[in-house]
Amino acid sequence: IKGLFERFKKGLARTAQLFNFRTWFGRKVDQSFLDDLEARLIQADVGVAATTRIIDRVREAFADKTADENLVNFVKGELKGLLEDTTPGVLATAAKKPTVYLIAGVNGSGKTTSIAKLAQRLKDQGNTLVLAACDTFRAAAADQLEIWAKRAGTELVRGASGADPASVAHDACQRAVARGIDILIVDTAGRLHTQTHLMRELEKIRNVIQRLIPGSPHEVLLVLDGTNGQNAIRQAEVFTKSIGCTGVILTKLDGTAKGGVAVAVRQSMKLPIKFIGVGEGIEDLQPFDADTFVESLFE
Ligand code: GDP
């Protein structure tokens, strides 16, 4: 855990640099100070709406005071407030097996890797799993998933190349029910250049799952690449409108991502961040905890 935290912290070092307000201690909190603070928050990908709110609150609380440790703690508190009410890493489960998680996201976001990490995590917690590779147009993704599935000792349902994704979902649901499996994780396609087609396909998969396993999917998790900043928000909007996501897995926070992106996602989409990806390995998935996360954005 400590290793993971270190990696994640290293990835967010750039945000910590932006949030190193120590050099500002002693400055008067006037308009020019607020402008500087605003610029830092925007650079950290916090997003315009959340930044405006934080600046207003700081103005109210600190007008004509001098910047000190209290101001830093105040900003931390605001960020935590904007991120709160997530149950760290807790996913909804079905009263009657199987629980179904539908995973969406554009290609390259880290969807396949995140599914593998999630599957491993749920397996380690004692669950039996079936994975459904519904991205039948990208054979490489299904191959990759198959490698991960083998490694994690879980079953994978996949169709022939170009097969109807909904029929793969159908088979996977039937198999999960027939075998009394605990959790079914459904991977989906993620090509954005055929947006309408993609969204229709996702809806079709969702409908099949709903029909075969009433009350499911229990979570629709959207995988977003943290290094995509505000672009990730636009993707989230498209997916949420179409299939109604329930939570986010925010990936690549060990890389060049700026930590504020978590706040922007949470604020603009009102979606809880369930997990964060902090590396390419199978163990590099962490439950998202607002307190720990915000603290790690500061030196
Ligand atoms: P997909 O196209 O959305 O299924 O994306 P993949 O799962 O194939 O991931 C795309 C690339 O991002 C791969 O090289 C992964 O190893 C990498 N990747 C995924 N998640 C993370 C992460 O949390 N951190 C880092 N550094 N790389 C990641």
Automatic annotation (TrEMBL):
It comes from the Bacteria. Belongs to the GTP-binding SRP family. FtsY subfamily. Residues 272-285 form the SRP54-type proteins GTP-binding domain. Signal peptide: none annotated. It is an enzyme of class 3 (hydrolase). The gene is ftsY. SUPFAM superfamilies: Domain of the SRP/SRP receptor G-proteins (SSF47364), P-loop containing nucleoside triphosphate hydrolases (SSF52540). This is Signal recognition particle receptor FtsY. It is a peripheral membrane protein. The keyword GTP-binding applies. Involved in targeting and insertion of nascent membrane proteins into the cytoplasmic membrane. Acts as a receptor for the complex formed by the signal recognition particle (SRP) and the ribosome-nascent chain (RNC).
